[in-house]
Design brief:
The chain has eight helices and two strands; from the N terminus they run αααααββααα.
Amino acid sequence: MVADPVPLQLFAELFPDGISRYAVGGLLVGLGAVVIYVGTGIAAGASTFLESTLSYVSEQSRFQRYVGSRDWRVVFTFGIILGAFAFAATVQSGVITTSLYEPGSTGQLYEALGVTLWTTDVQPWRLFLGGVLVGIGTRIGKGCTSGHGVCGVGSASKTSLVGVATFLFVAIVTAQVVAALGVSP
């Protein structure tokens, strides 16, 4: 039996570098969500982790909801930050090579204390503004893409299905508008 070339061509256009990097990333995210759920009985959502971390410095009631579980949530939050740093310092800098990633393809490499590091081409004000807008979006959406997208959709939550559809629609429209305006990093 011969595969239909139209779906294969569409697949090749959507994933010109192959699907393996996405599959590996998805498996790792899914595994992390399972480990957190099995270990705590709580769905893994990054906005909740960051909210609980703020309970150390803020007395606002919304940040106090997670005081009982905030210690392990802080470990998770620091794990996200350290994982990103480790990836940038090893794979993105080219110290570790893998067919899943081309070193230095999305930013600039530089040397610091004998170690090759990576930095993004995106301007700091854009990173800050993007972070603020994502924070506002997680409040309005009552959660983030990891909570709704990974855990909520995985458990067939109607709220999460609607939320993810909304996230995707807004992201696609925003990307198209930004591209049409010619905005670059």
